[in-house]
């Protein structure tokens, strides 16, 4: 329950930052989220151990939040989604260089992957890398947009919807691919 609450708070980051900055200083908002991030890291340590370099996100996010706190920087707070997105890109891309890929690790928790499955998860990891590049560029542009609602709308809603869309499309393609591979095996 505590893990889910802390994860939920991190997902609500853009909303809390947007409204938090209307009623308090960036230092307070940054400090609160630095504590939330540390608590989540300590409570969820074991599940992250299977994905190499996942701690890069915690370290980078914490560094930025501490900077935002001590510099009382609204701009630094707005860069948090960009930094986390960049960390995801780095971890996913590095896993292509040094396998297994992140998607293969995650999929391997739910099923045994054959050669087709490993090739497929590698391709999905590349798709996610492309997503993180595009998402990062857009998230960066919203940081500098004069209307803070644009930052909130993209980073607190649209980017999550896009992630969900990529996951849904991938699920459909995966089911289709599995059926195709099974049909090919039966034909052989």
Automatic annotation (TrEMBL):
The chain crosses the membrane at residues 27-44, 56-73, 79-97, 127-145, 151-173. Keywords: Membrane, Transmembrane, Transmembrane helix. This is DNA gyrase subunit B.
